[in-house]
Structures are given as C-alpha cells and as structure tokens.
Amino acid sequence: MIVILHANTDTESEAYRETLAHLEKLPGVQIRQHHIQGSEQKLTEIYLLGDTHKVDQETIESLEAVDRVVRVSQEYRVLGRHQDEHRASGFTYNGVTFAQNNLNIMAGLCAVDTPEHVEIMMQTLQGFGQVCTRMGAYKPRTNPYSFQGHGRKCLPYVFELAGKYGIKVIAMEITHERHIDDIRECLEKTGQPTGVMLQIGTRNTQNFELLKAIGRQQEFPALLKRGYGVTLNESLNAAEYLASEGNTRVIFCLRGMKSSFGNPHRNMVDFAQVPVIKRLTRMPVCVDPSHSVGSREKSPDHILDVIHASAQGVVAGANLVLVDFHPEPSKALVDGPQALQMDELGAFLEDMEICKETYNKRVQLWAKELVREQTLDPARPERV
Ligand code: PEP
Ligand code: MN
C-alpha cells in the first residue's frame, strides 16, 4: 500500500506528524518513506509494508496531509504501474528529462581509451545537438587479461571534456560501490561540469549489494541492464532493489539475451519486450542495440543490423538508445567491431527521429481506433 501525500507537504508540519503517528500505530505494518524532489515539486510517498489487509484505506485518506492511497500488488511496489496513471513516469536529471513518453540517445564510447577519442566523440555529438553520451571507465571483462578500463584515472578529462562540449549526462558503468565515490569526488574537483548516470551491467544485474549501494544514494540516477540469463521478472526485481533503497530514478535497459539461438547476433535481441516493461512499470525503457547485435553486419538494404535493431526498439516505444560509436573502431580497446562510426552519426540520429515519429503515429492510429469502436458501441469494453 502506498500513501501519497499532497505535493510539497512540509515534513515539519502538524498534518505530516499526524499522518506519520497514525501510520506508525498500525499493527504488523512497517513504514518506509520516499521523498522525491521533482523539478517543480517535492513528493512524499509512504510505503506500508507487511500485513496491510486490515488497514482501513478510507481513514488514511481522510487525514489532512494525504492525497490518496494506492493498493499495490506485491511485484515492483515502488516502480510498478499498479493501474495508477497519476504517478509520474521518469525524471529530470541535470536538465535532461527521461520519461516513458520521450526519446533520448546516448551514443558514445564503449570504453574510454584516449582523451583524443573522447574529445572527437563529444565534439561530434555537440555538432548534432546531443547532450548525452556513454563512456565506459570501469569495464567488466570476461578475460582477466583483457583491458579493464582506465578507471578513475580517466574521469578528470572525461568530465572536463563533457563540460567543454555541453554534455549533460554520461552513462557510466560501475562495478563496485567505491566507484560512486570516485565519480562524486572527481565531479566535485572538476566543478560539476556534467552529470553521470550509473550503469549497472548485465553481469551485475543481480549483484544485490551493488544494487543496494546505488539505491542508497540519490545523487545519481541509474541505468540498469537486464540480466542476460535471468527472467524479465528477476531483472525488474533488480530494479526494484534500487527503488526500495530510495533511488527511484531508474531506467531499465534491454540488451539481448545470451543464447546460441540468437546467432549470428551476439545476443538474442529482446526489444519486443519494450512495451511489456512500460505496461508493468513506470520506468523509461532503454535499448542497447550494440551489445545485442555485436557486429557491423548489414543486410541487402545497406542498413546495419545494429541500426535495424535500434529502429525496432524505438518503433516499439523505447525511450533511450544506448549505442557504441568510435572515431577509429580498429583502435578501440573494447568492442570495436560493433561500433558505429562518426560519419554515421547524422544518419543514425535522423533514422531514430523517423522511428520516433512512426511510433507516435502508431499510438495516434490505435487511439483513433479505440474511439471509433467506443462510438459504435459505448458499452463495449476495450478489447483484451
Ligand atoms: C556496456 O554497455 O558497456 C556493457 C558492458 O554492456 P552489458 O552489461 O549489456 O554487456
Ligand atoms: Mn561493450
């Protein structure tokens, strides 16, 4: 059960204290508060955990500070949709809005290698009006002798260059909770030139201690990759770990599943599940075509499989595309063979714009269809 207070309720007020006192007295129920600072208002949600069956919803709703009460199913308590369209999806971070009804692109380096490559990447992005990127500093590698990423050493120039080229949000994978401190300290030292979204890789989707650590802090939002060998439900529960600790600014990313049935792609592309996640949760949905497809193969229509996969995600309503680019893929230290090249960025962005418009047209088409059916027969329920 979620008790949603009126926006901007003062936690020092009598009405707030009265609500808390009432909820704390409920037998067998533990309470957990979430304060969400939006761009315009502060929202407070109080989660009632435990045996809530006997809780009287009406009495709670009659309390002065309470706006409404939502009964939730067990799954995805915080991030779930729960038939409650009123609760917002998404968030704004460092001036960029990530939501279930818009689209951002995070094109960038799989792994930071040289300052020159970082600079070319960011300068090119700025040329196309882009304010987000991806930059891998801590790389989880299968082979212990492979390049592990430059780690904290590269952060100062990555952040400074981001500031120079107007990049506002960098998706950066972390593999250990101390990396959060590295990032925070370096952003402070360099004067907060940019923002960072903490990426949790597919190999860490169920690293619960890492999830809890990223969930405990609220400074940085999180981009959680789906686990490549677990069910969707297990991965959505991983996202809920972040939220249950207090960090509700979470984006969920599909990146393909490990299976030989996906061959010749590196992973079995799972972007048909974009709408499923939007139905089950309020998280914006990201697709990663690079790590799904994993090559620069193309079909007779001259379109790379990576780009086709990106299009499939966006036409299905994806809200973010995380995609590998590199100025000199043959010199990339990680995943060069799947990277798109700088001179492909313009057409790629245009293609994504076409796909976004197509998605919007599809939504309008089916909304019209619903109105038509209901006009013909107002008593007819929506098709299931
Ligand atoms: C990445 O995005 O750099 C990455 C390692 O992806 P994944 O965790 O999906 O393999
Ligand atoms: Mn990679």
Explain this structure:
With 384 residues, this protein is α/β, with parallel strands linked by helices. 33% of the residues lie in helices and 19% in strands. The protein has 2 domains: 2-73, Alpha-Beta Plaits (2-Layer Sandwich); 92-364, Alpha-Beta Barrel (TIM Barrel). The strands form 3 sheets. Strands 7, 8, 9, 10, 11, 12, 13, 14 and 15 form a 9-stranded parallel β-sheet that branches. Strands 2-3-1-4 form a 4-stranded antiparallel β-sheet. A two-stranded antiparallel sheet has the order 5-6. Helix 3 (115-127) packs parallel to helix 4 (155-164), helix 6 (208-216) packs parallel to helix 7 (232-244) and helix 10 (305-315) runs parallel beside helix 11. The longest helix has 32 residues, at 345-376. The radius of gyration is 22 Å and the shape is globular. The two termini are 27 Å apart.
pLDDT under 50 segments (min length 5)?
Answer: none
**Which percent range describes the beta-strand content?**
15-25%
How much helicity do the residues have?
Answer: 25-40%
| Helix count, DSSP H or I runs of 4 or more residues | 11
Average pLDDT, rounded to a whole number, is: 94
Count of separate structural domains: 2
CATH third-level topology of the largest domain: TIM Barrel
From the alpha-carbon coordinates, what is the Rg to the nearest angstrom?
Answer: 22 Å
CATH architecture of the largest domain: Alpha-Beta Barrel
CATH class of the largest domain: Alpha Beta
* SS elements, strand count: 15
**What is the general shape?**
globular
**Bound ions, cofactors and other small molecules, one mention each:** phosphoenolpyruvate, manganese (II) ion
